[in-house]
Amino acid sequence: MQHIFEEHESEVRGYCRSFPAVFASAKGAWMTDTEGRRYLDFFCGAGVLNYGHNPDRLKQALMAYLMRDGITHTLDMYSEAKGQFIERFQQLVLQPRGLSYKLQFPGPTGTNAVEAALKLARKVTGREQVVSFTNAFHGMSLGSLAVTGNSFKRAGAGVPLNHATFMPFDGYMGSDTDTLDYFESVLADNGSGTQHPAAVILETVQAEGGVNVASADWLRRLREITQRHGIVLIVDDIQVGCGRTGGFFSFEEASIVPDIVTLSKSLSGYGLPLALVLIKPELDQWTPGEHNGTFRGHCPAFVTATAALEYWRDTQLQEAVASKATLVQTRLQRMLQQHGIKGTVRGRGLIQGVEFADAGLAQRVSKACFEAGLVIETAGINDQVLKLLPSLTIREGELAQGLDIIDQGLQQALDDGLRRAA
Question: How many domains does the chain have?
């Protein structure tokens, strides 16, 4: 069947080149192709499937809604499904954390949520410039690309990407340099050539950028700087929110409250498109229809998102993520030591990465893992980081099985390298 895609689908397709199988079904942590071969999934739709494939709780809610002819599409008209999601989100996510946000439903993609956040920050402040960070990734539409660091993706725009200034992310200039000192100097210096920004946008863990982790102290200081200078702080939690780092929001560990938060990917919990912008009430200065989207009322996604929020009725999932994160970090560190490889393990929760000193090793390991039945991607500007995104609900035995395959894939990649060098 692969020839159908190769003959008729655009050359823009990407992940299928790394994972050349035709998938037919999936359950939990596993995917099955049309030949009946099973693959353990450490990719999870780039962070879309935090609760695994086809979780029963969500599937049952969705099927019941569809079978009673629940309304599917409502734009931003009121619907029972949306109302139930809003009520549950307030009850299980915002209120327990002492957060007060208005909820905006843009078009159902992460990049649309980012576009809305940037537009609103500019509207509220009357300023144009937005500060982003080195190695950031915020989406593929023009506004999101302007605050994305990857030069390959930026070049695809075909037009100048303006009104964005890049600052060094935490650790970008080495452990001895506090990058926020530089940021503060730029803000304070009228000769810096940098306009006073409307907003700062960041990922607390840069997922596509190479699993780069901002420390809690760095985040707290950034929040203080933005508050002092009247700058809107936008946290892009599209990939690392919804429990990926442990807490529902990735910024919880730092005890900060952003002005705007963007969510998508695992928000619906089922792979159905859904995005959300959380806005401090005093910043909700939109006029009706000023930002909209045809599919912002996708009711089946509201249904599964509401069901997914039941995972957050207690701390059981968060505690499980912390335990599994320790298992992953310990095993990855041991692999580097046992194979005598130079590299760095980093991450939070169940987003973990290994940056190898040999920049090409991550891709070779990913390929060997796929051949052995594990789907795992790479990240970083040169694909130099092996990136682990298992589902949060994966069983520990399955997690250990996947780590065993990585260990074997690493050995195979090393052996292949030696044979090529001989």
Answer: 2
Among the candidates 265, 291, 312, a domain finishes at: 312
Cβ distance 330 to 92 under 8 Å? no
Task: Tokens for 272, please give them.
Answer: 């159905």
- Is residue 123 located within the same domain as residue 229? yes
For residue 134 the two structure tokens come to 């080195």
pLDDT < 70: residue spans in the chain: 422
How far apart are alpha carbons 279 and 100 in whole angstroms? 8
In the block, which residue shows the tokens 């950028």? Answer: 209
298 shares its domain with 169: yes
**Residues 245, 349: contact at Cβ < 8 Å?**
yes
Q: Are residues 51 and 63 in the same domain?
A: no
Q: Are 353 and 388 spatial neighbours (Cβ–Cβ below 8 Å)?
A: yes
Give me the CATH number covering residue 319.
3.90.1150.10
CB atoms within 10 A of CB 22: 12
Same structural domain for residues 377 and 344? Answer: yes
pLDDT in tens, 294-306: 999 899 999 999 9
The per-residue pLDDT for 193 is 77
- Cα–Cα distance between 262 and 285 in angstroms, integer? 17
pLDDT at position 415 is 86
252 with 293, same domain? yes
What is the C-alpha to C-alpha distance for residues 312 and 93, in angstroms, rounded to an integer? Answer: 7
This prediction has a pTM of 0.96
Residues 199 and 108 in one domain: yes
